[in-house]
């Protein structure tokens, strides 16, 4: 840390004058308080001192980890020294700080207060000896007495602390590159039944509709700003910017002559593709991903299909014994709708006026995106590769509990004649339980041939993430390093999305138990 920094100037003052006049063997320490104790750390590994940032909590991490923060585009683990020392917890305040220390991997350690930077002659650093105190002396490298206004300062050995409290970091770091390369690579269900359709269902004015998942590029939230185009049809809401591209937006309510309604927190934009064209269709909410038998699908009655814009609806899907009707929208017909044509014409005009070489490069680099389904557990966002998701269904009112079922299985449901084991993902990741709600969903994965459902708090969206925004997650434990090996760092959106490898959700004997339960 140079003398041009505030910490460097503070060090000069506390060392007693001009650094050029000090002997070269004087060591600089940062002193800080945790509880009633005063500590010091050698200046060399201290990168910076920051206010305690907001964090994203990580399941399966050591209990002393408060979470992960975004520090100028870099993911930084934040660790509570109070927890490591066994001190009583307390809320952060204006004096709380995080010391960013790099000993092989940058880590932020939360302290109650930073006191000063001091210069100390090596002769004044005494061995720990047989002192007794509230801190394990194995974590100390020495004692400094009568410096900086403190009778005794304990020199904390962070290398030893990290090695003991986070021993797995050293082990998993060696294979981080391999893990990052393999994580997120899941097998597509090879024996997908050709007699089934996979649909994304959504709701508009109390009615349920669906579009084939192959035609859905992604699902995103409604942005705060939509560019309205003067003179366009009422169906056309305007255009939005989606990763440096202009996306035309239409309202399905207006297309189907349904009452207008302002978008709210549940509203979503389903980005529909046909060839090279894309349109965002605003829905009241997105429900689930359905896998339905073709035998449950009937063509739209011809008389109705000929009536105006009802031609957009090609089929009707009957579920739950006919009690639930889902109208399937044909994207081929949808793109022939006058509102869609108007929207595409509008955005083409705007794109021609504003096109640059950067836009063209973005188009060429479209394959550099990874498509993930984003879901929430508590306040945190997680993502899984879209190809790993078999379907997404509602949580039934009651799960059937099977005698002698594995303890980790919440129950089973009947999914079109097949027994589906259901596991609470919160419990699987060591998070506190919550009461069932209408927002919860069961995400179905195929893990080594065993189809398994996991309950999540809510499914947020389908998101395309640039591969440049995906990086290896900090390695904090052996389990976490396999299951949550990667992270999407969306700096502009101030979002950290933890990417789960579904193949790591179940292991060894657990898979055998699940296979026996499903048989």
Offer a quick outline of the entry.
The chain has 519 residues and is α+β, with helices and mostly antiparallel strands.
Biggest beta-sheet profile? 6 strands, mixed
CATH topology of the largest domain: OB fold (Dihydrolipoamide Acetyltransferase, E2P)
Structural class: alpha+beta
| Helical fraction | 10-25%
Look at the structure and name the CATH superfamily of the largest domain.
Answer: CheA-289, Domain 4
User: In percent terms, what proportion of residues is strand?
Assistant: 35-45%
Q: Which regions are unreliable across 5 or more consecutive residues at pLDDT < 50?
A: 1-17, 19-23, 170-193, 303-310, 352-362
What is the CA-atom radius of gyration, in angstroms?
29 Å
CATH top level label of the largest domain: Mainly Beta
Number of strands: 33
Report, as a whole number of angstroms, the end-to-end distance: 63 Å
Care to describe what's here?
Strands 8-1-2-11-10-9 form a 6-stranded mixed beta sheet. The chain is elongated, with a radius of gyration of 29 Å. α3 (158-165) crosses α4 (167-173). It has 519 residues and is α+β, with helices and mostly antiparallel strands. The relative contact order is 0.12. The protein starts with 5 loop residues before the first helix and ends with a helix. The protein is built from 13 helices and 33 strands. Residues 1-17, 19-23, 170-193, 303-310 and 352-362 have low confidence and may be disordered. The protein has 3 domains: 6-165, CheA-289, Domain 4 (OB fold (Dihydrolipoamide Acetyltransferase, E2P), Beta Barrel), CATH 2.40.50; 196-364, CheA-289, Domain 4 (OB fold (Dihydrolipoamide Acetyltransferase, E2P), Beta Barrel), CATH 2.40.50; 368-518, OB fold (Dihydrolipoamide Acetyltransferase, E2P), CATH 2.40.50. The longest helix is centred in the middle third of the chain and has 17 residues, at 338-354.
């Amino acid at each position: 840390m140079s003398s041009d920094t505030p910490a460097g100037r503070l060090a000069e003052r506390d060392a007693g004058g001009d650094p050029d006049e000090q002997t070269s063997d004087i060591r600089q320490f940062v002193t800080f308080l945790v509880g009633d104790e005063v500590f010091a750390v050698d200046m060399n590994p201290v990168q910076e001192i920051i206010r305690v940032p907001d964090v994203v909590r990580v399941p399966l991490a050591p209990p002393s980890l408060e979470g992960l923060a975004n520090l100028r585009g870099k993911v930084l683990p934040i660790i509570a020294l109070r927890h490591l020392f066994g001190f009583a917890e307390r809320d952060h305040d204006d004096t709380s700080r995080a010391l960013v220390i790099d000993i092989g991997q940058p880590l932020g350690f939360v302290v109650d207060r930073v006191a000063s930077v001091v210069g100390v002659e090596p002769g004044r650093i005494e061995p720990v000896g047989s002192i007794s105190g509230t801190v394990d002396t194995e974590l100390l490298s020495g004692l400094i007495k009568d410096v900086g206004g403190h009778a005794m300062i304990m020199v904390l050995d962070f290398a030893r602390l990290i090695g003991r409290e986070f021993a797995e970091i050293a082990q998993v770091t060696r294979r981080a590159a391999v893990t990052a390369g393999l994580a997120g690579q899941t097998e597509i269900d090879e024996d997908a039944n050709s007699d089934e359709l996979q649909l994304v269902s959504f709701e508009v004015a109390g009615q349920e509709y669906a579009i084939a998942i192959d035609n859905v590029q992604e699902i995103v939230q409604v942005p705060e700003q939509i560019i309205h185009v003067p003179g366009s049809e009422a169906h056309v809401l305007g255009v939005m910017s989606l990763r440096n591209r202009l996306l035309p937006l239409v309202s399905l309510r207006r297309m189907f002559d349904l009452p207008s309604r302002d978008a709210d927190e549940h509203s979503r934009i389903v980005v529909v593709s046909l060839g090279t064209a894309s349109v965002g269709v605003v829905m009241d909410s997105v429900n689930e991903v359905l896998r339905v038998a073709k035998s449950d699908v009937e063509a739209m009655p011809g008389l109705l299909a000929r009536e105006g814009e009802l031609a957009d609806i090609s089929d009707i899907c009957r579920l739950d014994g006919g009690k639930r009707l889902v109208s399937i929208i044909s994207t081929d017909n949808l793109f022939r709708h006058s509102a869609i044509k108007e929207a595409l014409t509008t955005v083409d005009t705007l794109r021609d006026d504003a096109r640059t070489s950067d836009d063209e490069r973005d188009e060429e680099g479209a394959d550099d995106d990874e498509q993930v389904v984003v879901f929430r557990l508590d306040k945190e966002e997680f993502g899984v590769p879209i190809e790993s998701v078999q379907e997404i269904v509602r949580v039934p009112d009651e799960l059937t509990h099977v005698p002698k079922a594995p303890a980790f299985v919440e129950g089973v449901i009947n999914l079109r004649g097949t027994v589906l084991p259901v596991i609470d993902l919160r419990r699987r990741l060591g998070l506190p339980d919550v009461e069932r709600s209408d927002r919860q969903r069961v995400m179905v994965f195929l893990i080594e041939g065993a189809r398994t459902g996991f309950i999540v708090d809510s499914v947020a969206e389908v998101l395309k993430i640039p591969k440049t925004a995906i990086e290896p997650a900090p390695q904090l434990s052996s389990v976490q390093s396999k299951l949550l090996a990667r992270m999407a760092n969306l700096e502009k959106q101030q979002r950290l999305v933890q990417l789960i490898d579904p193949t790591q959700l179940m292991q060894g004997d657990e898979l055998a138990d699940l296979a026996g339960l499903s048989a």
